[in-house]
Structures are given as structure tokens and as C-alpha cells.
DNA sequence: AGTTTAACCTGGGTGC
DNA sequence: TGCACCCAGGTTAAAC
């Protein structure tokens, strides 16, 4: 369910419960995630203390003294904190694949119907291929319009694909890519190399705005997203083009259109976006 | 090397 | 009710 704001919201929700806690036990109820959970993992984590919970792109990083767990929510993953775990041990739901039993008595449960998520341990996270290939964080200083302009020269891929490519910038998923391009007035099919410096300055700005705003709101956007307290995010009334094909553009009244781009639905306003 | 496509999964919605 | 089909917030690996 997550785009970057939802992952960050998850991190902030989990951190107070897990940082500084000992892993009494890792319970693997179903190891068949994107990559199978290693059979050795429970004993690798047993009695280890979570030093920090960080985020890089859409990965959650559980930091231990001896290594890092790299975890992704995929399309449908979520974490839930159980504070009275002793009384609810039988209460595992379908697709609750992992449980972290903590020294505090709390329990963190990973739920993921589609099993596109992952939970991997590595001693050298800085050299892990999932991490080393990643572009800059969209909310960091490295990411701005000049940067986008510079790396896009000569690139023929559609701007939307370019923006969603983790090599260029991380954390911009299908919903926010559409919304950002609408706000920047850029047609999603325009070649990345044919977007001007001026428009990249606008685009980088709106990407930062939208993501920061969504984080502030506790991970808006997602229909069925529950934060780690089990509370829903706000499903944004603010969405302009995502899921609005056939409806009128809020800005100009034109009918929102839809195209298929690398197998993903892409809404845009044919009048506002060029 | 850049770009596109298929694949990994389950569940919910729609139309017959 | 049932069934076939399409769609979904992500990312990788393989194919052009």
C-alpha cells in the first residue's frame, strides 16, 4: 500500500515501540516473501537490540550492532503494533507473515497479502545491491531541478517513467508521479530529455511539496492505508488526476484522460499538461 | 546503456 | 452463486 509517505509514517509509528528493544523472538509464519526469509534469521536476531529504525527510499532499515534488516512493504505490506500480545497470540490474521516479539512484551506483526515485500538481513547494508543502486532522496538537498535537468539530457523515456525510476530519484510512485506532473503542467508522455530546465525546477519543487505534505498528514493518498496505530490516513480529496479519468479537471474543466505507461495507469489533463 | 516487458502474488470489483 | 477477467500503492530480471 505504500508510497514513500506511508513508509515514513510507518517508520515513525514503529520507532517508539521498537528502538532500544530486544528481539526475544522472530516468528516466521510464512517465509515466502519477495525473497524467502532466511531460515537462519530467527537465531541471527534473537536477543539482539534494535539500535535504530531508519528509512532509505521505501526500505525500512532495522539497525543492529551486527548488521541491518532491509525490509520493504511491496504493494500490500503493513506493520501493526500489538501492545497486549500475551492476550492475543491466537489472533493472527491471514497474511500475518512475521512477528517480532519484543522485550517490552509488545509485538510487531508484518502483514502482506501479495507477499511482494521483503525482510532481509545483511552485515554490510552499504554494499547491498538493493541500496547501492538507489538515487537521491527526494526530500534531500541532492535532489533539485538542476540535478533532474542534468541527468535527463538525451533521455528518451517518458518523463513519468524517468521520475519513477529509482536510479534517478527514489520514492516517487505511481500516484505521486501523476500528481506531481499535473502540478508541474508536464505531460506524462513527454520525453525526459525534452523537458526544460525551468520546468524541472518546478517539478522538483512540487515533488518535495507533495511528499512533505503527505508525510505531514500521516500518509494520505492510500485508500486502505492504516498507520501502525491502526488509524487510516486521509484519502486525499486533493488528488487531481489519479483515478479521475473521465472526470473534469479541477483547474480547467477539461476531461481527464488516461493512458497506460509501462503497465501502469496514468491520468493527466490534456489541457493543463503539455 | 537505455528502455520496455513480463513476472512475482492475492483480493476486490465488474460483467456475464 | 459462480466464473472469467481486469485492476491495484513496487521492483527486479530479462528481453529488445
Task: Provide an overview of this structure.
The chain is an alpha+beta fold and 274 residues long. The chain folds into two domains: 4-132, N-terminal domain of MutM-like DNA repair proteins; 145-268, Orthogonal Bundle (Helicase, Ruva Protein, domain 3), CATH 1.10.8. 25% of the residues lie in helices and 20% in strands. The chain has helices at 4-18, 41-45, 129-132, 145-152, 159-164, 174-184, 197-216, and strands at 23-28, 52-56, 59-64, 67-72, 78-82, 96-102, 107-111, 118-122, 257-261, 264-268. The strands form three sheets. A four-stranded antiparallel β-sheet has the order 1-6-7-5. Helix 6 packs across helix 7 (197-216). The protein binds a DNA duplex (16 and 16 nucleotides) through helix 6.
Which helices and strands occur, and which strands form pairs?
Elements: H1 4-18, E1 23-28, H2 41-45, E2 52-56, E3 59-64, E4 67-72, E5 78-82, E6 96-102, E7 107-111, E8 118-122, H3 129-132, H4 145-152, H5 159-164, H6 174-184, H7 197-216, E9 257-261, E10 264-268
Antiparallel strand pairs: 1-6, 2-3, 3-4, 4-8, 5-7, 6-7, 9-10
The chain binds a DNA duplex (16 and 16 nucleotides) through helix 6.
Amino acid at each position: 500500500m505504500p508510497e514513500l509517505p506511508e513508509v515514513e509514517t510507518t517508520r515513525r509509528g514503529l520507532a517508539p515501540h521498537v528502538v532500544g528493544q530486544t528481539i526475544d523472538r522472530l516468528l516466521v509464519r510464512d517465509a515466502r516473501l519477495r525473497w524467502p526469509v532466511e531460515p537462519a534469521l530467527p537465531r541471527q536476531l534473537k536477543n539482539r537490540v534494535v539500535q535504530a529504525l531508519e528509512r532509505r527510499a521505501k526500505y525500512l532499515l532495522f539497525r543492529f550492532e551486527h548488521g541491518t534488516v532491509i525490509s520493504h512493504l511491496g504493494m500490500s505490506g503493513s506493520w501493526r503494533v500489538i501492545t497486549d500480545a500475551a492476550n492475543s497470540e491466537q489472533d493472527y490474521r491471514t497474511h500475518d507473515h512475521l512477528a517480532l516479539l519484543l522485550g517490552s512484551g509488545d509485538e510487531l506483526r508484518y502483514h502482506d497479502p501479495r507477499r511482494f515485500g521483503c525482510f532481509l538481513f545483511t552485515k554490510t547494508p552499504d554494499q547491498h545491491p538493493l541500496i547501492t543502486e538507489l538515487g537521491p532522496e527526494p526530500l534531500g538537498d541532492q535532489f533539485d531541478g538542476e540535478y533532474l535537468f542534468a541527468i535527463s539530457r538525451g533521455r528518451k523515456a517518458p518523463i513519468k517513467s524517468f521520475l519513477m525510476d529509482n536510479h534517478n530519484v527514489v520514492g516517487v510512485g505511481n500516484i505521486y508521479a501523476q500528481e506531481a506532473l499535473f502540478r508541474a503542467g508536464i505531460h506524462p508522455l513527454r520525453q525526459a530529455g525534452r523537458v526544460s530546465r525551468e520546468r524541472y525546477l518546478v517539478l522538483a519543487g512540487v515533488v518535495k511539496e507533495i511528499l512533505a505534505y503527505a508525510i505531514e498528514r500521516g500518509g494520505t493518498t492510500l485508500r486502505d492505508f492504516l498507520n501502525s496505530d491502526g488509524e487510516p490516513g486521509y484519502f486525499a480529496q486533493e488528488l487531481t488526476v489519479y483515478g479521475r479519468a473521465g472526470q473534469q479537471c479541477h483547474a480547467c474543466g477539461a476531461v481527464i484522460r488516461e493512458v497506460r505507461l509501462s503497465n501502469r495507469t496514468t491520468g493527466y489533463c490534456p489541457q493543463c499538461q503539455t
